[in-house]
Design goal:
Blueprint (H helix, E strand, L loop, with lengths): L1 H23 L3 E9 L3 H8 L5 H4 L3 E8 L8 E7 L5 E12 L3 E8 L2 E12 L2 E12 L2 H6 L4 H21 L1
Antiparallel strand pairs: 1-7, 2-3, 3-4, 4-5, 5-6, 6-7
Protein name: SRPBCC family protein
Keywords: Membrane, Transmembrane, Transmembrane helix
InterPro entries: START-like_dom_sf
């Protein structure tokens, strides 16, 4: 009987901690960075060419423009990516900011996960440094409770994409 009380106490404590996470932590922030051995203008153009996305985001199945703006800012796209289990995830991307050769800010709504990627491009002579500052939050309380526990995974995925982009860009 004492063992059951201890186990129930542990389960209740873990449940309280889990649900308190969603109340205390509203968003997850992290940074990923890569240095590409190419000039800034070439890297920026390759990075923002939607025809190149499948080269460095292998899970991307398709990208379709929903509303393409002349100045790029405000443009919206529908993307379909495949998750690790082979399921399709439909997400909408919106360009929040676009300053040529300096910055691109993208907002993603991926079935409850709301993510902002703020990419900045800086030059170090013949090399370009891409820095991505990401913010993730959820429109679901339960998913919001889980997000802080996956911060490392989110960062690893974004760093992997930047590493893939570096490999792709340096081959060109």
């Amino acid at each position: 009987m004492k063992a059951i009380k201890v186990i129930l106490g542990i389960i209740i404590a873990l449940t309280v901690v889990f649900f308190a996470t969603g109340l205390l932590i509203k968003e997850v922030n992290y940074e990923a960075k890569v240095e590409v051995n190419k000039p800034l203008n070439e890297v920026f153009a390759m990075f923002n060419d939607n025809n190149n996305l499948k080269q460095w985001i292998p899970e991307l199945k398709s990208i379709v423009a929903l509303d393409k703006k002349i100045g790029v800012t405000g443009s919206r796209y529908r993307m379909i990516v495949t998750d690790g289990n082979g399921n399709d995830i439909i997400m909408e991307e919106k360009v929040l900011a676009y300053i040529e050769n300096e910055k691109v800010t993208l907002f993603f709504d991926a079935q409850g996960m709301l993510k902002t990627d703020d990419y900045t491009f800086t030059s170090d002579g013949s090399k370009t440094i891409i820095t991505n500052r990401s913010t993730c939050k959820s429109d679901s309380y339960i998913f919001g409770c889980m997000m802080p526990y996956f911060k490392g995974t989110f960062k690893e995925i974004d760093q992997g994409y930047l590493n893939n982009f570096k490999a792709f860009a340096e081959k060109q």
